[in-house]
Specification:
Length: 81
């Protein structure tokens, strides 16, 4: 199995930070997820930014469908590779 990286897209920083905290509890993620601000192309306003939570998944043990359901609780989604 190869290493996998999941990218979860959230509407704002608060949601992204909460998702990052909850990942450890719900999915036993041991490595700290990375939070990244993703400004939409051509937008300068911070309100027009999405936040990404990047989760390293050595061995591909996290279920993509479960992550989809989990992140949807915060109006987010998981980017398909």
């Amino acid at each position: 199995m190869s290493d996998v990286r999941h990218v979860l897209v959230l509407p704002d920083r608060d949601a992204a930070e909460e998702v990052a905290r909850e990942l450890g509890e719900r999915f036993a993620v041991t490595e700290e997820p990375q939070l990244v601000r993703d400004a939409l192309a051509g937008e300068d306003d911070a309100e027009d930014a999405q936040w990404l939570v990047v989760v390293e998944d050595p061995g591909g043990r996290l279920d993509a469908t479960e992550l989809d359901t989990f992140v949807a609780d915060w109006d987010g989604w998981r980017e398909e590779p």
